[in-house]
Structures are given as structure tokens and as C-alpha cells.
């Protein structure tokens, strides 16, 4: 009798749990799909998850585990390899796209798709930043800011400062001994981007800004819970601090320019203050600050992380390391005796190193997803993407597709020999009109660092088996704890005495 009662209670509890799960799983479908009428029958397959939460728990669980790809794999397992799935992410009904042709269309069709970043992200990055503004405004600001960031003249101008910063940093790290390699690289790339945009080298201000940016980034991919203790709440406070610091910088720059007018633009801040549209309108402080928040964040996070990963991959594969090093030695050997340091022409001749960097960008996929929103009902691959729904282009799936990249988890720069990626299969900096505006600058920084590292240094990791974290970006949990060792000056033997003195001077500045 007692055993029968226990079984009855168990059945009731189990049945209640199943019914509750069915009810919760059906609420999002009722909330988002019913209003679509017959169009709901042409939605992609998928899972809308529970009310409010959607699939955020499974997303966060996967990306906080050792297998972030299990999130997409669960959709493939349950619904097949359709490449397009419905879900609810970051509080919005969404379509996840994991195949190249659909991704290319979403990213390049500005008539039917617009930026679709979550409200929480826009609140953190800024509603006047490049990721949030309209197509027309984005096109105008991109045109005005492209040359000072990615132009041939600008890149050539940045090289000496980047060189001296890299040389000094490597010399300093080798003398220190044990360092967090990623932490130091982020500081280096932050110093570079701060100089380019603000001509600022104040250690105190840079340390304060970098600390706030670190907190901000942890909130970008978090659930938008604005309560003390949660990542998003901390990120909002960091955003407020960043705005206050940048407002102070803008105010001081405006005051200085009034007292000492100059016809020449010294940095990106001057360019933003001077820029005018066809009607003579200038950017207001909110626009300038939001542009700075975005550029300075993207300009050091991606470069710092990808420099670390490319260095690690080369260090782990001696055959690739030696091939990349030989290329750099040849560049130095063939340099005219009167030349001082690297030139943009030499950097663009680093064919093998470019393949190494591209392979690192593919394998790591620094930005694993980008957000768009359908401006109208759109048909893609036989499915309907309803107006107002978000579209998440899942870069990570594109870059790890075994049909495009055999053995996708293997680091192999040789896969790029003679390979021209099909449109939509290689998107480290996005695609279309909203391609990352600082992509050339980022690759320039990585190339200059690797040039000097390959010639004269090696990295010894202290915890080579350290597990990885995937949020907000992929990195070792110990921030790549290790030692930088000076191993050779072979690559420098053909430098002139004048060039050697320039490098020694830069080393001593540290």
C-alpha cells in the first residue's frame, strides 16, 4: 500500500513537471508565433525556450563549459542541418544563421536588414556608436573616419610608434620574467589605440580606462539583469565612468583648441571635432563619445587577444614558427641600408605571416556572432524571417565548418595556399557596409608585434594545459601566464648602426 502511494506521488510529480515544462515551452510560441498567422508555418525549425529566458541559459551554460559549440550542436541534433534556426536570445525572437550564403545575404542586404543588437548592448556601447546608428548615418561617419584609421597614409604614420611600443614592451617583459601575456598585450594595444585617437599616454588615465573597459566587456554578452552583483549592472556603471572620463577629455580638448587653434589634425579626436556634413553640421559630444567608446574598445581587445593567440599557435607548431621567422629574416636582409624600421610595403609583403594571422582569426573567431534585424519579412533558404525578428549570424559555425575547412579545429596556415574563401565563409571582421572599420589597423599591429617577436623572442607558458574561457572572448583562464625569453638577434644583424641605436633607445624608454 505504501509502495503504491509512493509510486502515485512520483507519477504525479513527474507528470506535473512534464506538463509545466510543456506549458512554459509553449508560452513563447504563443507570444511570438501566433500573431504571425500563416507565416508561422514557414519559420525555420528551432526552440524558443522558456518565457523571458528563451535559450539564454543553454547559451551561457555552453559558453561557460569547455565546449561552446554544444549550443549550436543541440539545434543540429534536434532539428537537422538546416543551417537556420528559430530561438529567443537576449530577450528577442531570433533566427540563428550558421551557413555561408544566408549569412552573406543578411550582412550585405542593407535594404532588408539593419543593426539588431540587443537593447542591453546598445545601452553599453552607445546609441550613437557605429553598431547602432542608421545605414545613412553609418555610411557618412565611416566615410569621414576611414582615412584617419585605415588609410594608407595613416597606417604608414602609425608604424614607427607601434614599432617603438612593441620593441620597448618585449624588452621590458623579457626583463620582468613571469607575466600574464594577454594582460600585457592588452595594455600594449590599448596604449597604441589611445595614442592614435587621443595622443594620450598618461598611465593613470589609461589604467582607469582599461579597468572600466574590462568590466564593460563582461556585461555585453551577459543577461540584462540590472541588479547589484550581476555583470550587466557592473557594466552599466563602467559605461557611466567611461563617459565621464571621455567627456572630461573632450571638454579639455575643445578648450585647448580655442586657446591654441591649429590647422593640422593631431589625432582622431581632432578629426571628430572638425568633421562637418554637407550642411556644416558637426558631431555633438554624445556622438563623439560613443564613437570613442566603440573604437577604443574594439581597437585594443581584438588586437590584444589575436596577437596572443597567433603567438601561441606559432609557439605550439615549431615548423610554422620557423617558416614565419625565415620570412621576417628575409625582409630585414633585403632592406636598404638607409631604411629605418618597417614600412607598410614590407608588411604587405609578409605573405606567409598573413596566412598565419588569417588562420588564427578563423580558428579563434574573436567575435563569434553579430546581430541584425529584419526590416520586412524576408525569405531565405525557403524559410521566413519575420519583420522585427533579430538575426544572429553565427561566425563561429562558419569558420569551423568542416566542408569549407577540413579538420577545422587544426591550426594549419597552409590551408590558405591558393585559397580564396567563398563569400560568407570567412568573416573575422564582418562583411558588407558594416565591416569592422579598423580591420587593417588591427592586422598591422599584429604583424608588427610578430615581426619582432619571431626575430628575437620565444614564449614559455607556465600552464600550457590551462582551461579556456569563452566569454566575453576566448582566452586561457590564467591570461596566458608565462615568460618572454630573448633567444637571438640573428634577424637584426643587417640593421645599420643608426637603426640599432633607435631600437636600443626604444628599449631603454621602458
Automatic annotation (TrEMBL):
Q: Which Gene3D superfamilies match?
A: Cytochrome P450
| Subcellular compartments | Membrane
- In the UniProt record, does the keyword Transmembrane occur? yes
In terms of CDD domains, this protein maps to:
CYP90-like (cd11043)
Q: Where does heme bind?
A: 436
What Pfam families does UniProt report for this protein, alphabetically? p450 (PF00067)
Its membrane topology is listed as:
Single-pass membrane protein
Any one GO BP annotation for this protein:
brassinosteroid homeostasis
Q: Where are the bilayer-spanning segments?
A: 6-24
Q: In which pathway does it act?
A: Plant hormone biosynthesis; gibberellin biosynthesis; Hormone biosynthesis
UniProt-listed PANTHER family: CYTOCHROME P450 26 (PTHR24286), ENT-KAURENOIC ACID OXIDASE 2 (PTHR24286:SF356)
Cofactors required: heme
Q: Which domain of life is it from?
A: Eukaryota
What Gene Ontology molecular-function terms does this entry list?
Answer: ent-kaurenoic acid monooxygenase activity; heme binding; iron ion binding
**Listed GO CC annotations:** endoplasmic reticulum; membrane
Q: In which family does this protein belong, per the annotation?
A: Belongs to the cytochrome P450 family.
**In which broad location class does this protein mainly occur, judging by the first location in its UniProt entry?**
membrane
**Described function:** Catalyzes three successive oxidations of ent-kaurenoic acid giving gibberellin 12 (GA12), a key step in gibberellins (GAs) biosynthesis. GAs, which are involved many processes, including stem elongation, play a central role in plant development.
Q: Which keywords does UniProt give here?
A: Heme, Iron, Membrane, Metal-binding, Monooxygenase, Oxidoreductase, Transmembrane, Transmembrane helix
Descriptive protein name: Ent-kaurenoic acid oxidase
